[in-house]
Design brief:
three-stranded parallel β-sheet
Length: 100
């Protein structure tokens, strides 16, 4: 639903199966970008991915939208949080805000 919603709104979406793949796919991205990170990913979880991004000079500039089925985690390290399931309009308004 997330990918389809964003692509329908004109965004280019790069998906990743886990945190390690996400790190590799984000390298070299130029222009405006937002990382939408689910905390419950395999191999490298969302918290570890966010920490790795923040420690990296290149990736640390990318704003992070954390999504999770849990209540908002106290220390997720992201810039914004959406609890799943979320409405498409809420996703789009949050991504638009982070792209500014």
């Amino acid at each position: 639903m997330t990918t389809e919603c964003l692509e329908d709104a004109g965004y280019l979406v790069l998906s990743a199966r886990d945190g390690e793949e996400a790190l590799a796919r984000m390298r070299g991205i130029s222009g405006r970008a937002v990382a939408i990170i689910d905390l419950g990913m395999p191999y490298m979880d969302g918290n570890s991915l966010i920490a790795a991004m923040k420690a990296d000079q290149e990736l640390g500039r990318i704003p992070v939208l954390v999504v999770s089925g849990q209540s908002e985690p106290l220390k997720h390290g992201g810039d914004r949080f959406l609890r799943k399931p979320y409405a498409p309009d809420k996703l789009l308004s949050t991504v638009d805000e982070l792209c500014r």
